[in-house]
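User: Fold this; tokens only.

Assistant: Input:
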Amino acid sequence: MKINQKEKYEIIRLVEQSEKSARETLKEIGVPKSTFFDWYSRYLKNGFDGLANAKRKPKQVLLLESMNTLNKKIIYLKKTTLT
């Protein structure tokens, strides 16, 4: 289950306002520390907008881009070594 932007913000506020340590609070609510501190870092850098879920390129698109780059390098090498 993905946690949305608003929920991430609410978790940050909860941890900030808790009398317990961040580690204890996060353990109680079941959020990994590394995940929380990634959110918190993005929140400090970009505010509420930094908590939006990033849209990622599909792996197939990345592979296609890699293949295009590789093909361009091969063509370049053929031209430069054959002349």
